[in-house]
Design goal:
The protein is α+β, with helices and mostly antiparallel strands. It is built from eight helices and 22 strands. 24% of the residues lie in helices and 45% in strands. The strands form six sheets. A five-stranded antiparallel sheet has the order 11-9-15-21-20. Strands 2-3-1-4 form a four-stranded antiparallel sheet. A four-stranded antiparallel sheet has the order 10-12-8-22, with no helix packed on it. Strand 16 and strand 17 form a beta hairpin. Helix 6 crosses helix 7.
Length: 392
């Protein structure tokens, strides 16, 4: 039913009245001549609807029935277009819309990066831009294979990339490389020695002959696991010794925190700059110039989407905040807190994932320049270190 109404509207139809004579005879003549009418009425309001191109053929049937026809309403697309014939601006705008739509459909509207976890999307987008794939690029000028090759050369962290062009959108699906595990050379002969001085808490030997046991105190460089292994027959062989030996060790960390330092304090004065981004063109929406002096800038870009698809249209806003340099004095509690943060940062860097800190003893020295904090750390870490034996 909807398709029938749409067809009638596209072709145009006329609603007319039947005056005088015999409307019933007029309808009968129309049926015999093959004219298709609908919404027919009789009596004083006799009338019907007919396709616009068939209306003039009904006059002959009306004369035979002694009737006159009068048009009451013209409906449909042909009559709507006829009313706009004198408005040249509408047709010019419609033509410009068609040309613009066709022109935009030949360009890349947006570039989406998917599948990345550790590699920032901004780095991949920068590599894509240098390879020629960016918003506003002519779609026919993009060579997916060439873009993939150039991006992989610029980003060694990417193991695989695929450029998929879907209409006016380009998708860059990436797979990142996985870190290679550390595989020791089992063909070489080596002992296991102590990397640091400490007391052994646990010992797990994978290959070799252990020379120490749980609870022993060891010094840096001491032999822990021997590469010489004796068999049941009394013979001995040389092997690649390996083990995991957890020991309680001690480390020292010293940090200095000045009590006086220069910081940037906001003055409360702000300036906002907005741009309209269309493809790679920036159209200023405000007359605010870039501030001169000590200012901090915060940038935010809002992308316009249509049905979940990003469009090459967005608002780029810069918020500038004026700051001034000011000297502040830390309190003792603030200095201690800052020293604790620096000690934790340095201890994590020292252990590098090999162990953990189980305790610490702090010694504070206050002076005119600030706080000097010495931390004696008690750690649990793997002290097993392979030492290769060179046999001539």
């Amino acid at each position: 039913m909807i398709s029938l109404r749409l067809t009638r509207w596209l072709l145009g139809y006329v609603r007319f009245s039947v005056l005088g004579g015999s409307p019933e005879r007029f309808y009968t003549n129309c049926a015999h001549s093959g004219a298709y009418l609908w919404d027919m009425t009789s009596g004083g309001n006799a009338g019907a609807c007919v396709a616009a191109r068939r209306y003039r053929f009904l006059r002959r049937n009306a004369r035979r029935a002694g009737c006159r026809l009068r048009v009451r309403e013209r409906t449909g697309l042909p009559f709507s277009l006829r009313r706009t014939k004198s408005h040249a601006g509408l047709w010019a705008g419609f033509a410009a819309f068609l040309v613009l739509s066709f022109s935009l459909s030949t360009h890349i509207w947006c570039v989406q990066v998917t599948g990345n976890k550790d590699v920032p999307a901004g780095k991949i987008e920068s590599a894509l831009a240098s390879a020629g794939l960016v918003s506003g690029t002519l779609r026919s000028s993009v060579n997916p294979q060439e873009v993939e090759r150039r991006v992989m050369l610029q980003c060694p962290e990417i193991r695989w990339i695929s450029i998929n062009l879907r209409g006016s959108m380009a998708e860059a699906a990436v797979r990142e490389t996985t870190e290679k595990p550390n595989i020791s050379d089992q063909k070489s002969v080596c002992n296991v020695i102590a990397a640091r001085t400490g007391q052994i808490l646990s010992l797990e030997v994978f290959a070799g002959t252990p020379e120490v046991k749980k609870g022993d105190a060891v010094v840096e460089g001491q032999l822990l696991v021997n590469a010489v292994v004796e068999d049941q027959t009394g013979g001995s062989t040389m092997t690649h010794a390996s083990a995991e030996i957890i020991a309680e060790t001690s480390r020292e960390v010293t940090v200095k925190v000045p009590l006086h330092k220069q910081v940037d304090v906001p003055t409360g004065k702000t300036a906002v700059r907005r741009n309209l981004d269309i493809f790679r063109a920036h159209i200023p929406l405000t007359l605010q110039r870039k501030p001169q002096g000590s200012w901090r800038c915060e940038c935010e870009r809002t992308t316009v989407s249509l049905f979940g698809t990003p469009l090459p249209l967005g608002i780029y806003m810069e918020t500038w905040k004026e700051v001034r340099s000011q000297e502040i004095t830390l309190t003792k509690s603030e200095a201690r807190s800052l020293a604790g943060q620096q000690i934790k940062k340095q201890s994590d860097a020292l252990l590098k994932g090999l162990g953990r800190v189980t305790g610490q003893k702090l010694t504070e020295h206050w002076g005119k320049d600030g706080l000097t904090c010495e931390a004696k750390l008690t750690c649990e870490e793997n002290i097993a270190k392979e030492s290769e034996i060179f046999i001539k």
